[in-house]
Amino acid sequence: MKYFPLLAALFLTLFATGCVKQNLPVQFDLSDPLALDVEIQWAVVTEPYVACYESADYASRVVTHFRKAAILQIIGESTVTDGTSREKWYAFEEGWLPASNVAVYANKMRAQTAVKQLGTH
Q1: Strand arrangement, sheet containing 76-82
Q2: Among 118, 119, 80, 121, which Cα is nearest to 99's?
Q3: Which of 41, 97, 90, 88 minimizes the C-alpha distance to 67?
Q4: CA of 3: how far to CAs of 7, 9, 15, 61, in Å?
Q5: Which of 2, 15, 33, 82 shows the smallest number of beta carbons within 10 Å?
Q6: HEC string of the chain?
Q7: What is the pTM of this model?
Q8: Which of 108, 119, 116 is nearest to 41 (CA)?
């Protein structure tokens, strides 16, 4: 019981200092204005190494390659029907990738978080 006044004083001091308003300005990272744009989707490559095609077709020319954890801005999409099977493809500035090779995110920040969770960067 002899420590109760001391503990009460310590608690009140901590409580009072925690409630003091700090006038710290909010700073936004404006280096990438598209990172949180709700109209733009982002893809993260999920396979170790993927071929990027000129069009949404495996028979088209391979224009480049991407490695796992690459973050790409989606600029279009297409669903390709081959007989009875259907496959979704995503268009990027560099070319096309099938949906099975990427994970899609609503914004770039989420894509960057996913890359960190992949443990490759």
Answers
A1: 62-67, 49-53, 96-98, 85-91, 76-82
A2: 80
A3: 97
A4: 6, 10, 18, 78
A5: 2
A6: CCCHHHHHHHHHHHHHHHCCCCCCCCCCCCCCCCCCCCCCCEEEECCCEEEEECCCCCCCCEEEEEECCCEEECCEEEEEEECCEEEEEEECCCCEEEHHHEEEECCHHHHHHHHHHHCCC
A7: 0.70
A8: 108
pLDDT tens-digit map of 61-120: 999 999 999 999 999 999 999 888 999 999 999 999 999 999 999 999 999 999 998 876
Residue 90 CA to its chain's centroid (Å): 16
